[in-house]
Amino acid sequence: MPFVPEIRLHKADPHSGLNRLAQTDPDFGSPYWAHYWGGGLALARYLLDQPALVAGRSLLDLGTGSGIVAIAACLAGASPVKAADVDPYSVAAARLNAEANLVSIETVLGDLTFATPPHVEVLAIGDLFYDADVAARVLRFAQASAAQGTLVLIGDPRRAHLPLALLEEVAAYSVSELSGATGHNAKPACVYRLRA
Ligand SMILES: C[S@@+](CC[C@H](N)C(=O)[O-])C[C@H]1O[C@@H](n2cnc3c(N)ncnc32)[C@H](O)[C@@H]1O
After folding, report:
1. Is 35 in the pocket of ligand 1 (CB under 6 A)?
2. What is the pLDDT of residues 40-59, one digit of tens each?
3. What sign has the CA pseudo-torsion 160, 29, 61, 138?
4. Is the terminal CB of the chain with fewer CB neighbours within 10 Å at N or C?
5. Is residue 154 very low, low, confident or very high in pLDDT (cuts 50, 70, 90)?
6. Which atom of ligand 1 lies closest to the CA of 33?
């Protein structure tokens, strides 16, 4: 994609047949994994531009979707990289996308926000503040991680439930969620560090 040309992703288009898949699976949820999100695009760009932040460090990508952030982290030298999501289709897509980019990630299916955060050096969160309940749980998880010494990086296009008062902006971009490019339809998308 133009904004992050280092990464190739399998994405949905009108011919992908997602509707047919949805009709055959009553548990089919919103296919977040099949689309670009401002938060993931911004965070992926940031990690690729600032590899020293993550190189050689363990990283968890919470709410991985397509896997874009986890893949960027691998390309920047993070290791090991875990990618977690509650959607089994996301986990499958993230694995396929990792393969397409010749990187290795460990996928985790489930909601880690109900558990004690694992000890990782970096927690990456791409675009998870779109819903009040999810945002509250993700924030608690992020704060518990930070209290353990984890660097918490958040990519977000300033969605409604982003806890801005607790964040320090470290990068600002402009990108379209439709095309994964700057220019037409581009909107602000930033990267933040959770304050300790
Ligand atoms: C808007 S998408 C962002 C995907 C990706 N991080 C990106 O920026 O491209 C949100 C993702 O978070 C996942 N998700 C929602 N709640 C979650 C939770 N509690 N734990 C893990 N993943 C979650 C969704 O299934 C979805 O894949």
Report:
1. no
2. 999 999 999 999 999 999 99
3. positive
4. C
5. very high
6. 27
